[in-house]
Amino acid sequence: MIIAKIQGGLGNQMFQYAFGRVLALRNHTELKLDATMFEGYIHRYTMDHLNIKDIYATPAEISSFTRYRTHNTRLGRWLLNPLFADKKRYVIEPAFTFVPEMLNLKEPCMVDGYWQSEKYFLEIENLLRKEFTLREPLGKYSQEIAAKISSTEHPVFLHIRRGDFAHHPTYSKIHGVCPPEYYEAAKGIIKEKVGSPTYFVFSDDIDWARENIKTDFPTEYIGQGPDKNYEDMELMRLCEHRILANSTFGWWGAWLSDTYRTGITIAPKQWNIKLNTKDLLPTHWTVLPF
Hints:
Elements lengths: L1 E4 L4 H17 L4 E4 L24 H8 L7 H11 L5 E3 L16 E4 L12 H7 L8 H11 L4 E6 L2 H5 L3 H4 L5 H15 L3 E6 L2 H7 L6 E4 L6 H8 L4 E3 L4 H8 L9 E4 L17 E3 L2
Parallel strand pairs: 1-2, 1-4, 3-4, 5-6, 5-8, 6-7, 8-9, 9-10
Helix pairs in contact: 1-11, 10-11
């Protein structure tokens, strides 16, 4: 058995599932999810709207692994770690960059981290593209937007992440938000290479987006909030080209697109102030120095 600890927003949840899924397949065993942290959490668990194998670990199964976790407190270093810690049973992500040895982990174990690189799961890319589809049809509003995207010759999604990145006392210091100069530079590239795009602007602060993001082309502003974020991601994947924020939510909207390798994907270099995110962005994406 492999247990994947699930945390963060939908984009993070999908990275964690993808890594756990590939480990389970490599070990010919089942994957279970630990989604217990979402009670009272800033984010919501929304992967249950996707066609994934959402088998949840029981409290007893979770505790059977968490007892092996390494602790960084003084009590942990001097007492708990020597008695209980087992890095092969409770595996904490050793680095934010891709660590290929992690793909050789053996079951049974619990994996705790973010695992934000396609290098961890490219071998099951086709499977994930099937599982990361919606269980239920799009709602009426999303169907209308999907029809507009499909009828447009060159649809481009532009993602603006604000919310906790702009206002949360911790996340705003770790992530921050992309500056207006980044979006202007990205729109310049789209104008040069695409010609006449139609923009679909997705944001968790749609009023701010309307006031601050202007284009010279037809533009639709979309933001259905956390209750429908999975539908927004589905709409993103329908677009031919994309301008990302420093957010894994838009990352998956780009990666899941049929034009993932042929369309233009523009992303900021700075995704996290403290961490090395060099393996987060695929090499064929256009990375701007913001």
